[in-house]
Amino acid sequence: MGLPRPGRPAARRARPCHPVGPAWLRAFRAARSVLGRPFVADLDAVRERLAGPRTAVLGHSWGAHLALRYAIEHPERVSHLIYVSGTGIDPDRGWHPHYERNLRRRLGPHLNRWEALGTRTLTPAEERERAILQWSADFADPDAAMMHAEDMATPWLGINRDCNQAVNAEVKRELREADIAARCRALDLPVLIIDGPEDIRPRWGVDSLAKALPNCERVSLPGSGHLPWVENPHDFRRAVVTFLDATM
């Protein structure tokens, strides 16, 4: 699922680069070729090929962490950082137990089926069903949640659990060992943090990041969960365009 095109004012100065295509998706599905790959280097290669010497970087969820890492390691190559629905930089990841409780609560009538599917080896169709149920919890509007989750699962590319586990382990290691907060305090570029207040990942988990960044704005988009551009596209677009226009 892609991000919306920027509004006209930003489009005059910025061209979005979406490094997601069949080859990229196949790479993510091939666990042995992905595990341990230098994702920051991959992102730098995309920038070099498509965006020139300096660009704005937007990342969502784990991609927000990757975008932050990239800005920390290559600040001279990043003009702006937009951090969407990330989970912050706290080494103890204190938000995660709250996320698990919120997930179960948001699943509501689907909880029993989701749990049942989690107790056995799944067929591809069942794996897709369980993913749709879980992803539906990422949306604030219960009437539209299943539709949005179905869209995310179409076409169905499967879930690379080995890659997911390796990426999560790497994030945990970085947060424990890399003193990300100190590096953020030295990051001299404009940053926009975008939250969906109905995200089941508690937004206070990002507070320490916002405090550490010396040039940071933060917006919360009403009526949205983990994917705010889906549920509140107008305000998402306005926030991004306003930020880029004000700081370019």
TrEMBL record:
Signal peptide feature range: none
Gene3D superfamilies reported in the protein's UniProt record: alpha/beta hydrolase
PANTHER family: HYDROLASE, PUTATIVE (AFU_ORTHOLOGUE AFUA_2G14860)-RELATED (PTHR43798:SF33), MONOACYLGLYCEROL LIPASE (PTHR43798)
GO cellular component: membrane
Keyword field: Hydrolase
Keyword Hydrolase (UniProt): yes
Name of this protein: Alpha/beta hydrolase
Tagged with keyword Protein biosynthesis: no
Organism (species): Micromonospora sp. HUAS YX12
GO molecular function, one term: hydrolase activity
Residue span, AB hydrolase-1 domain: 36-238
UniProt cross-references to Pfam families, sorted A to Z: Abhydrolase_6
Domain of life of the source: Bacteria
